[in-house]
Amino acid sequence: MRVCAGPERGNRTSDNTMSDLQWSLLGLGIVVILGVVAFNWVQERAHRRRAEEAFEPPPDVLFKDEPAAPDLPPPAAFDDDALVDPPPEPATAEAPVAPPPPRTPRSPEHAPKPEAAAVDCEAVFQQDTAFGDEFLQRLSQAIGPLARPARVTGFDDRMNQWIALDETAPGRFKRVRAALQLADRQAAVTRVELEEFASAMHGVADDTAVAVLLPDLDAVEARAQELDRFCADVDIAIGLSVVARTGQVFQGTTIRALAEASGLKLEADGQFHYEDAQGASQFTLDNQDPEPFFPESIKALSTAGITFLLDVPRAAGAIASYDRMVQVSKKFASTLDGIIVDDNRQPLSDHGLDAIRRHLLTVYSAMEQAGIPAGSPAALRLFA
Q: For the residues 140-156, what does the mean pLDDT come to?
């Protein structure tokens, strides 16, 4: 019996040892799982805090309140900046306006003289009594068939301004002008178009027995060619792209969150816009892929790259708009772990960004000297 008792005690001891080991392993597994959960929670909070700090809007020194406009020049100067137009109609999603393609920066070699900032060929009608509806209708009929559109404005003596005509125009203005724009992004006005305009204006004057004042067409044609060369020199679009590293993509929801945290707003054209205090777009953020950023589809969108675009002559913020765009693109690249590249997908260093900035300073200076500063009413018309 003793011989048998030894083995029986040994079997019971082995069963107890296996049970303790299983409980120990179970407890250790629970501890490890809780540790991983706690570590991930801490990392997530830290990452969220860094993102919020990185995209906290900086003090906006770019778009402070503008100083009061100086006194307007006398009517004879025909200052286009004094024109008061009706508010523009809002853009619709059915007709999005695509930004101009990026251009290679060039030096503004053909800057017009400061005193030659006029961008229109103007026909001015004037009489002692206010023009009635019959004259205004005849003028409208004359400019309707022209190859290029002409704007008609009246000079308000009380406001000391040229203003756009509306239903109150008949019986209000003693001085009316029709203006044919000399150039745009496509081409300069031709001699044939100038003669067509002058002939139409002389026809109105003859039919209504009202004197008309027109400039010398030779001088206007020369001015149109000079203005066209100048516009070609300063018509620049700067594009900065943020692309993902190999094998990565940017999620649409992340792009939207970062854009809105940087002060950009998603508009109906499928692009994010950074606007000044007056609501004028200064630069845009677009998808490198053909699919726009529409609110209904951006949640499911992913892309390998995005592009910031500055339409140089149309942005009233001038060099400060470029500086802000660079600042925002760097934040995107840092947060998304992307790379800033140029149009040729070559990485852009701080040295390259500074070289672009120095060139833009010369462009903005030339526009100021020409009397057509970036974002001004004249610039917005020339670079429409």
A: 93
CB 217 within 8 A of CB 270: no
Nearest 5 degrees, angle CA 250-CA 255-CA 258? 130
Q: Name 156's bridge partners.
A: 161
Helices 252-261 and 319-336, interaxial angle, to 10°?
140
Structural domains for the chain: 106-232 (3.30.1400.10), 236-382 (3.30.1400.10)
Least confident of 82-91, 194-203, 227-236, 274-283: 82-91
Per residue in 94-111, pLDDT (tens digit) is 434 344 444 334 444 444
Q: What are the pLDDT digits (tens) for 18-52?
A: 566 666 666 666 655 666 555 555 555 554 454 44
CA distance 235 to 108: 9
Closest CA to 98 of 303, 323, 290: 290
- Token pair belonging to 286: 């677009």
- Separation CA 217–CA 194 (nearest Å): 7
357: Cβ contacts below 8 Å, ≥ 6 apart = 319, 322, 323, 326
In this structure, the number of other CB atoms found within 10 A of the CB of residue 171 comes to 11
Evaluate the CA torsion angle 348, 365, 79, 207 in order and state its sign. negative
Q: From CA 97, how far away is CA 88, in angstroms rounded?
A: 15
Q: Tell whether pTM > 0.70.
A: no
